[in-house]
Design a protein that fits this description.
Layout: H1 5-18, E1 23-26, H2 27-44, E2 60-73, H3 77-80, H4 88-109, E3 115-120, E4 123-130, H5 137-162, E5 171-184, E6 193-196, H6 198-206, E7 213-216, H7 218-223, H8 240-253, H9 263-275, E8 289-290, E9 309-322, H10 324-334, H11 337-358, E10 362-367, E11 370-375, H12 385-409, E12 417-432, E13 440-443, H13 446-456, E14 462-465, H14 467-471, E15 486-488, H15 492-500
Parallel strand pairs: 1-2, 5-7, 8-9, 12-14
Antiparallel strand pairs: 2-4, 2-5, 3-4, 5-6, 9-11, 9-12, 10-11, 12-13, 14-15
Length: 530
């Protein structure tokens, strides 16, 4: 396994040739009539029906006005860390903690107007669809606020009644409104519905912070006739008493929509499923961990569950396309959505190919225009930290080099960049939440959170390492990475050339120098893991 320029270029050109033509539809006029017809057929056959936009075919993109909701748990680290460090017991408790709130979110969503988009670590992403455009924004926003209220009610009762008040969560919630492009990039247990656009991106940013409460964008505040707060959006929480009357009035007028069933009914159904052992009991630490010998690309999420979860030292990588949100917003405005979505399909698939095919890692998930992947090097019994950080840097260089080829081969993405965050640490990988195909795959640890955090702090085309990964940087790469763990414009060749000269750390023997058949005719060095 190794990244090679010629192979990557050939792979990207094939992806461009084979990428589906993007069928762009408007939600209300073109998508929903077909969805409702399909829903009727499936219900008549007693088959399950996915929520709107959840299982879109590849090549289908739907433009829809939305209310975007991000619910972040601000005290997650209280459960993930025990006496200042991560342990198997603390990871098990943290996963039980997430399982409780993922399940709460899905169970409430089943009874309200919101629908789940995705879960990622301590963040839950939901959406309320607005088929009526500007005229329906006030009602859609009140539906979203009703869902938030109901979620918090059931979350509190679930903690008290199902978890003996042992898994108390504090929530920070971001809300924005606006048009997005809905696509899907998955299937089966790896469904990846996502909403591309500034409203989804901005709601996530509003949920980022330690202060609990509901934080609305100025666009959402305007719908509620609340004053704008400008740059203080992340600091000024919603006065919930101001809108409580609006929500209550809406619930009274529209009793069939947005009104939660009795929370005790939801909790009784949950208890029945626990008794039947179809879902884990939140009060029992039944997570069982095992080590996974590298490579990681053969991990099957369908085989993972609380009683069979992976836990091991690994490197977490977050790679994000800088500038893509503005790019897709412009595409919505100018009618060039098909080109923007096709470019994203190609780029993301190539980034996944680099992580999995070239470096034996595993993609955990796509989060909008970001990919989260994990890599590891080691023996049958343990991870080798130095080699793992070395391979993560080679992988990061491969991601950047493949992205450069994508920019050369695709039209219209020349102004985009890529930023990458890396951190090393013990990390569980498993599947939790509501039953069946709606369960959630995740890798969640200090390493995954830190790799995302340092990626957020990158400028265009930077790679940033977290503090643990910095301690494991090969000596030969120290000139390429500054004292803060940051590297600018680092390519695959930069990394492997440095590592090929490194004989002072344990990482070096894991790789050997070779040549790739680059189409330029110039030999290119690459490394092959043991």
């Amino acid at each position: 396994m190794a990244w090679q320029y010629g192979q990557a270029q050939q792979r990207i050109r094939k992806l461009i040739d084979e990428a589906p033509e993007i069928d762009v539809r408007r939600f209300a006029d073109e998508y929903m009539p077909l969805y409702e017809a399909r829903k009727a057929v499936l219900k008549a056959a007693n088959e399950s029906v996915a929520p709107p936009l959840f299982d879109l075919q590849k090549g289908r993109a739907v433009v829809v006005d939305t209310v975007q909701i991000y619910i972040a748990i601000t005290n997650y680290d209280d459960y993930r860390i025990e006496e200042g460090r991560e342990t198997e017991a603390s990871h098990a408790k943290a996963l039980r903690f997430l399982h409780l709130y993922y399940s709460t979110c899905d169970r409430v969503i089943e009874q309200t107007d919101a629908q789940r988009v995705d879960f990622h670590g301590s963040r839950m992403h939901a959406v309320v669809l607005n088929p009526d455009g500007d005229e329906g924004r006030d009602d859609s926003l009140l539906k979203a606020l009703s869902f938030i209220r109901d979620f918090r009610v059931v979350a509190d009762q679930a903690n008290r009644e199902l978890a003996d008040s042992d898994l108390d969560a504090v929530f920070r919630i971001g809300v924005d409104i606006g048009p997005c492009v809905a696509i899907n990039n998955g299937n089966g247990l790896e469904q990846e519905p996502m909403f591309l656009g500034s409203s989804a991106n901005h709601a996530a940013k509003l949920a980022y912070g330690d202060e609990p409460g509901i934080f609305l964008s100025d666009r959402a505040r305007a719908v509620l006739d609340q004053p704008a707060v400008g740059p203080l959006e992340t600091l000024v929480k919603l006065d919930e008493d101001v809108v409580k009357g609006m929500i209550d009035l809406r619930d009274e007028v529209t009793a069939s929509s947005g009104v939660l069933r009795d929370p005790q009914v939801i909790l009784k159904e949950w208890r029945d499923e626990i008794t039947a052992k179809s879902v884990p009991d939140p009060t029992i630490p039944d997570f069982a961990f095992h080590y996974k010998e590298p490579p990681l690309n053969d991990i099957k999420f369908a085989d993972l569950m609380p009683s069979s979860s992976i836990r091991m030292g690994l490197a977490s990588l977050f790679a994000d396309l800088s500038g893509y949100t503005a790019y897709i917003d412009n595409a919505i405005a100018t009618g060039s959505i098909a080109d923007a979505v096709k470019a994203l399909y190609v780029v993301r698939q190539e980034l996944q190919n680099v992580v999995e095919d070239d470096f034996g890692g595993r993609k955990i998930r796509f989060i909008g225009d970001c990919i989260h992947g994990v890599v590891a090097e080691g023996s049958r019994t343990e991870t080798e930290p130095n080699e793992t950080v070395a391979i993560s840097l080679v992988c990061a260089g491969g991601l950047r080099s493949s992205f450069a080829i994508c920019k050369a081969e695709l039209n219209g993405i020349g102004n985009l960049g890529i930023t990458i965050g890396i951190e090393f640490g013990p990390t569980p990988i498993t599947r939790i939440g509501i039953r069946g195909e709606r369960s959630v795959r995740l890798a969640s640890s200090i390493a995954t959170a830190t790799s995302e955090k340092v990626q957020r702090g990158c400028d265009d085309d930077q790679i940033q390492l977290g503090p643990e990964a910095q301690k494991l940087i090969p000596v030969a790469l120290e000139d390429l990475i500054d004292a803060n763990g940051t590297a600018c414009d680092l390519t695959h060749d930069d990394v492997i050339t440095g590592l090929s000269l490194d004989t002072t750390v344990p990482a070096a023997p894991a790789y050997h120098r070779a040549h790739s058949p680059a189409d330029t005719g110039v030999p290119r060095a690459h490394f092959t893991p043991r």
